[in-house]
Write a structure and sequence with these properties.
The chain has 236 residues and is of the alpha/beta class. The protein has five helices and six strands; from the N terminus they run H-E-E-E-E-H-E-H-E-H-H. The chain has helices spanning 5-21, 101-115, 132-140, 154-164, 198-222, and strands at 35-46, 56-61, 67-82, 89-94, 122-125, 144-147. Strands 1, 2, 3, 4, 5 and 6 form a six-stranded mixed beta sheet that branches. Strand 2 (56-61) and strand 3 form a beta hairpin. Helix 2 (101-115) packs parallel to helix 3 (132-140).
Length: 236
């Protein structure tokens, strides 16, 4: 609870910076561009009002709008490189109680600019980030932004059709079939923490990122004998 979060934040950033300087991430590109994805995730859920006093409160109702249960969720906003090769996590922040995801994402973008120098060309997000304040924040940080449009967003699609109807595509991708992967809080193992204090939780996030990035950099960049087709990282 008394740990220096700025020290952990700096250490997490230094690991990624060193990997960049060592050219360990040079192959981590999409069409020649360095791309960072931003998204939020629920890390763990609590039933206790006492333990969840600093988390996000969710009320569950039945068909008669009567509250049947209440839970408290810890959520994070995360930035990670995406592309070929190892994709390190470069930033992870706890979303504070009462803070919206896009507000947290704007803060994350500004912190990325503070922690890293020219760390990417493009920032991508899902349909939630079709949000003028977020898009403008990314552009102010001299990054291009790509957001996913849902087919149900007819107004956005009509606007895009009007803008692009007389223009050939800049890039065409064939045989691309992205697959959604099930994301559960169990992969984090943070439901076995010893405190619900926000400082403790944020420090655990930093420690997780530090350990994750160091382990994978060792596996992918230093260990010559590791063959992912023959053995798993978990086994190693």
């Amino acid at each position: 609870m008394r740990i220096n979060l700025n020290g952990l934040r700096g250490l997490a950033a230094d690991i990624v910076q060193q990997a960049r300087y060592n050219k360990s991430l040079n192959n981590n590109l999409i069409d020649g561009l360095k791309v960072v994805a931003i998204d939020s995730t629920r890390v763990f859920t609590m039933r206790s009002e006492r333990l969840g006093k600093n988390a996000h409160k969710y009320e569950h109702s039945d068909d008669n709008d009567e509250i049947t249960s209440i839970d408290y969720r810890e959520k994070t906003i995360v930035a990670s490189y995406i592309g070929e090769g190892f994709s390190p996590i470069i930033k992870i922040n706890r979303i504070a109680k009462g803070e919206g995801e896009t507000t947290a994402a704007k803060k994350l973008v500004n912190e990325l600019n503070e922690d890293y120098y020219q760390y990417c060309d493009v920032i991508v997000g899902d349909s939630l980030y079709i949000n003028a304040p977020f898009i403008n924040e990314v552009l102010r940080n001299n990054k291009d932004v790509v957001v996913r449009v849902k087919q149900s967003n007819n107004l956005m699609i009509k606007d895009a059709d009007g803008l692009f109807k007389n223009r050939k595509p800049d890039h065409t991708f064939k045989d691309v079939s992205p697959q959604d992967k099930d994301k559960t809080s169990g992969t984090w193992n943070f439901d076995r923490r010893y405190s619900s204090n926000p400082i403790v939780i944020q420090s655990m996030y930093y420690l997780y990122v530090i350990a994750y990035n160091l382990f994978n950099l060792y596996i992918h960049r230093n260990l010559r004998s590791f063959d992912p087709e023959k053995e798993t990282k978990k086994k190693f």
